[in-house]
Specification:
Elements (H helix, E strand, L loop, with lengths): L3 H14 L8 E2 L2 E2 L11 H7 L11 E5 L5 H8 L4 E6 L2 H14 L4 E4 L12 E7 L8 H12 E8 L31 E3 L12 E3 L1 H11 L1 E8 L2 E6 L21
Parallel strand pairs: 3-4, 3-6, 4-5, 6-7
Antiparallel strand pairs: 1-2, 7-11, 8-9, 10-11
């Protein structure tokens, strides 16, 4: 029979085999990413806004989009969510998340799928988590429209990396074609396009300033209930901007899923 120390050593080896980890989880007393460049991530960030999520999610369904190693999905189960579905496009992260959920004794359903495919779920959820995903997308507004159309019943917890000023300018309804100065304001809603890499990551595509984050959310039909820290919002489903067309159906004919 293996000793307690031997079991922990074996667990540590399994965790190392599944690395590298982006989420620093604590599994059986072993940290998965103790040397994370951001620190104890995402735990330290969660401490700043966890109070906006209901303490008891009994009877509620949760969808975690871009779940990575499952930190937030696990926290939702710890709050007694009836059902948690966690999705990610990366099989590496899903293997980590399944491993963590198993060893933490939480019942979470995992699927490999993209935010662009959420219409295939044919289900709306009481809470949708969309944390740290938007800036990795080539089509960010399409993703927000799909969320509004297909899966958000009521609440969405949203986080997005931001750069530029934290000041928020809300433009007038319309401007003359000759108006150009307005676009020079640092606090005008702006998306910074990254053609190559940012922080070594080729999937960092569009990084908004704070004004753009909030404008895009409003345009897609989400109203801000709380903004507990600069990058995090608790949203409620509202009506989208009148000129926003419904998201198109995206065909995958002839493609084979990975």
């Amino acid at each position: 029979m293996m000793s307690e120390a031997g079991e922990q050593d074996d667990l540590r080896r399994q965790i190392e085999t599944l690395g590298p980890w982006f989420h620093n989880l604590r599994i059986g007393g072993v940290e998965t990413a103790p040397d994370h460049f951001l620190g104890d991530y995402p735990s330290f960030k969660w401490q700043r806004f966890k109070q906006v999520v209901p303490a008891d999610l009994s009877g509620m369904s949760v969808l975690d989009i871009g779940c990575n190693a499952g930190f937030y999905a696990i926290e939702m189960k710890r709050r007694n969510a009836r059902r948690v579905l966690a999705i990610d496009t990366d099989s590496h992260y899903l293997r980590q998340a399944e491993f963590a959920a198993y060893h933490m004794g939480v019942d979470i359903e995992f699927r490999q799928m993209s935010v662009y495919d959420i219409g295939e779920l044919h289900e709306k959820f009481d809470i949708v988590l969309f944390m740290g995903v938007l800036y990795h997308l080539r089509h960010p507004l399409l993703a927000l429209d799909l969320l509004h159309e297909h899966v958000v019943r009521d609440l969405m917890l949203f986080q997005c990396m931001q750069r530029g000023t934290q000041e928020v300018f809300i433009p007038e309804e319309d401007y003359a074609f000759s108006e150009e100065k307005i676009f020079e304001r640092a606090d005008y809603p702006k998306l910074f396009f990254i053609e190559h890499r940012y922080a070594g990551d080729p999937t960092n595509w569009f990084v908004p300033n704070k004004a753009a984050t909030e404008a895009m959310l409003r345009s897609a039909g989400f109203a801000v209930l709380e903004n507990p820290e600069p990058e995090v919002y608790l949203l409620v489903r509202d009506k989208p901007y009148f000129a926003a067309e419904k998201p198109p159906a995206i065909a995958r004919r002839g493609e084979t899923r990975p």
